[in-house]
Every structure is written in C-alpha cells, then in structure tokens.
Amino acid sequence: MAGKREENPVGSSNNLRGDVLRVLGVLKVATVEQIQQISAPHLSYRHSDKPTPAKRKQARTASHTGTLSDLRKHGLAENGGQLRGGDRLRNLTRMGLKAAARELGRPVGEMGDPARGAGRTGASHPMTANEAVLALLRPKPDLSQPSSPSGTGRAPGTRAASTCTTASCPSWSPP
After folding, report:
1. Phi, psi angles (nearest 5°) of residue 75
2. CA distances, 30 to each of 93, 124, 128 (Å)
3. Confidence at 97, pLDDT banded by 50, 70, 90
C-alpha cells in the first residue's frame, strides 16, 4: 500500500484513472464536473442530500479531482485554463493522449492533438460541445419532482401501452 500511495498520492484507482483518460480522450477538454457526469453519473444522485450546491458539487467531484491530480503528477493531464464561472478546464498532454488511446483501444494517430490554449478564451465552443454530449447521453433529471406525479407509474405525457397496434383494432389510434 505504501508504494501505491507514493505512486498515486491521492490514491486514485486504476479504474477511475481509466475512466478519466477515456472521457478526456474523447472530449479533449472538460471540467471535473463534466468528467464526473459522464463517467460516474450515479454520484449526482448519491450526493443530492448535501445542504448546499457547492457541497454537493464538491462531494460529487472529489474522487475525479484527486484522480486528475494523480494524472497531472505523472504528466498525463494538465490544467487548461479557467472558465468565467471559476471552473478549471482539464486536458491531456501528448503522453496522456497515448494513454487514452490505449484505454479506448484506438490507434494513437486517430486521437488528434492535445487541446492546448482552449482555456485562454473561455473555451466556449468545447464547453458547448461537451454539454451537447451530456444532453445526448442522459437527460438531467429534476430530483425535486417524482417520476410519475399522477400515481400511474408512467411519466407525464405518456400513455399506457396498448395490446392492439394495428389499424384493424377498434381502439387503435396512431401514436
């Protein structure tokens, strides 16, 4: 254990380092929160009971922040600037892109170049692209609303599935 701590002072796991490398290998530049939302979305629900948004965010992203610190120590990741809201951007170095290529099972030549300098201008385009990826992966639920407020077990705006799906059925109507 002592050797592991010397190698990775924060104590990040191989699986979590692999997750972070895969996310940054695809997105090129991202905030810690975006990395967490893609690689471990369940943490968003697990920490929803924290008293403030800042404490919820810190609890959700602590392990990913530590992992990025370990990757930075090994020269695989770097801080790539800061957004207007204060979030730091993270990106991979050339060595990190090679490690991400191995994690993704892709040739290094397909990985492109590191995203250097994106943070100097606020990285508006990469952040918009990342948000689109997040929206396509999974919608962000409203944790204050039950999934079926009508008590029917169905989400609002949906109807029960019909056993009759053809126009010959008297109660059939197109969806």
Report:
1. 80, 20
2. 13, 11, 10
3. very high
Q: In what order do the strands lie in the sheet with 29-31?
A: 29-31, 88-92, 77-82
33-52: burial string, b at 16+ Cβ within 10 Å, e else: bbbbbbbbeebbeebeeeee
pTM above 0.85, yes or no: no
Q: How many CB atoms lie within 10 A of CB 132?
A: 10
In contact, 96 and 76? CB cutoff 8 Å: yes
pLDDT in tens, 45-86: 766 788 888 888 888 888 888 889 889 999 999 988 778 878
Residues 159-162: contacts with CB under 8 Å, at least 24 apart: none
Encoding tokens for residue 47? 């920490």
In this structure, what token pair is assigned to residue 154? 């169905």
Q: Are 150 and 156 in contact (CB under 8 A)?
A: yes
